[in-house]
Specification:
437 residues; 6-stranded antiparallel sheet; 22 strands; 27% helix
Length: 437
């Protein structure tokens, strides 16, 4: 299936935000999109993109209708849980050389030990030179985090799962000092730094201006003898990012202006200059408005309020091995189609964006008219599940928004599971949405 092959390639080529943006720009430019900085005016049919610090992007296809009547927006995030390398990371302890890390996003720390890991990212040197790093993805080289053997883990096993792998112990094994004696101290560290210098041109101080991410090594795979599922890292939320982008690039006949918004930092609250809790999207929309009819603050507000958006984010798939965590009749299941989630948040809907019934009714009609397979869901039982998305940041502008994405089993694990049919249904859903008036 062509879409699934391309989806797996997207996951393999985009294990970090920067890699995702690079892949997205390549795919968009092949479809005629150009950097908005290279344009002075925009008209119906024009296609542009706006990039924020190589980690977030907004793509626009200008429609025939006046833009102040709003846009149809597909919004997803491209960051995923991982381990980040610290600024002073390389150290040697009793002959083993480690890389010190700090985990990013909600993870179960014990899931990251004793499995093959890779290092992806960039190092920016003082002169501005950028070194792109990808180590551990070939057939020979990998890294890992060690663990205690079961024969000696009696005390460890008495602790809770949250406690028995402390965050400070999630350090990568990257080398070994085989020398002995007084003069052997830190020789392993020196050896590793020499290898980095000779192979990648990286000195120890260059880690101060580096963004290096530790991710599971290996490619996305088909899961099951029937190949009905996909097993891969980062499907939260790159499954929705890919299907949103794929649908967006294929939809050329929408009357309203369309936008595909792919952002960073959702896993830690959408903070920072590349997250949705910033003026990144507002700035991008303002630049588009300026090139169409001239910037006008009131017109911008009207445009944003008149827009509709699918916050394209994943939902927790019902887990048959842990049914007590779910309200089954209000849960999403693998293979049951794209998932609409009226409200997210936790407990008493804290942090939620609660979609209006009128908007949901219009989406039901669009899905049925286009024979899209879909389901309505919550994330786990009341007082059990919950989580936030970028929806509430779009709702800030007064636009109609609802969470809509793919059900994922083993969400936030190093390897996550989705159903092939749900990936295809998500794309069909997003194409139908982009044509809504």
């Amino acid at each position: 299936m062509d879409e699934i092959k391309r989806y797996r390639a997207f996951l393999d080529n985009g294990k970090t935000e920067r890699e995702c943006i690079k892949e997205i720009i390549s795919l968009a430019e092949a479809k005629g999109y150009r950097n908005i900085e290279d344009t002075n005016t925009l008209k119906a049919g024009d296609k542009v993109y706006y990039v924020q610090y190589a980690k977030s992007i907004a793509l626009f296809r200008i429609g025939e209708e006046p833009i102040e009547k709003g846009m149809n927006i597909l919004g997803a995030h491209i960051d995923s849980p991982r381990l980040d390398v610290k600024m002073h990371p390389v150290y040697e302890s009793d002959n083993i050389v480690y890389l010190d890390t700090h985990y990013y996003g909600g993870i179960k720390k014990y899931q990251w030990v004793t499995m093959p890991l890779a290092i992806h990212g960039v190092v920016i040197k003082k002169d501005g030179t950028k070194k792109e790093i990808c180590l551990g993805e070939d057939d020979e080289l990998a890294f890992c985090i060690s663990d205690i053997l079961p024969h000696m883990a009696q005390e460890q096993m008495k602790k809770t799962a949250f406690e028995f792998i402390p965050g400070e112990d999630l350090d990568l094994v990257i080398g070994l000092n085989e020398e002995r004696g007084e003069d052997a101290k830190d020789k392993g560290k020196e050896k590793i730094l020499k290898i980095l210098s000779e192979t990648a041109g990286i000195e120890e101080k260059d880690f101060l201006s580096a963004e290096l991410e530790i991710v599971p090594a290996g490619k996305a795979k088909m899961l099951g003898l029937d190949k009905s599922m996909i097993l891969a890292y980062g499907q939260d939320d790159r499954v929705c990012a890919f299907t949103s982008l794929d649908a967006f690039l294929e939809t050329e006949d929408a009357k309203r202006t369309s936008c595909c918004l792919l952002v960073d930092k959702e896993e830690i609250g959408s903070v920072g200059a590349t997250g949705m809790d910033s003026v990144f999207f507002e700035n991008a929309a303002s630049e588009v408005l300026e090139r169409i009819s001239g910037y006008d603050g009131l017109k911008l507000k009207r445009m944003m309020r008149a827009s509709i958006m699918l916050s394209s984010d994943v939902n927790a798939a019902f887990d048959p091995l842990n049914p007590s965590l779910y309200d089954k009749k209000n849960s999403s299941a693998l293979g049951n189609g794209v998932v609409f989630n009226k409200y997210t948040g936790s407990r008493g809907k804290s942090g939620a964006s609660d979609a209006n019934a009128e908007f949901i009714a219009s989406l039901r009609k669009a899905m049925d008219d286009n024979a899209v397979k879909y389901q309505m869901s919550e994330m786990g039982k009341v007082d059990t599940g919950g989580g936030g998305t970028i929806a509430k940041f779009a709702a800030y502008y007064g636009m109609q928004v609802i969470d809509c994405g793919v059900a994922v089993l083993s969400m936030h694990a190093p390897w996550e599971i989705t159903a092939v049919s749900d990936v295809l249904a998500a794309k069909d859903c997003y194409k139908a949405f982009l044509k809504m008036n």
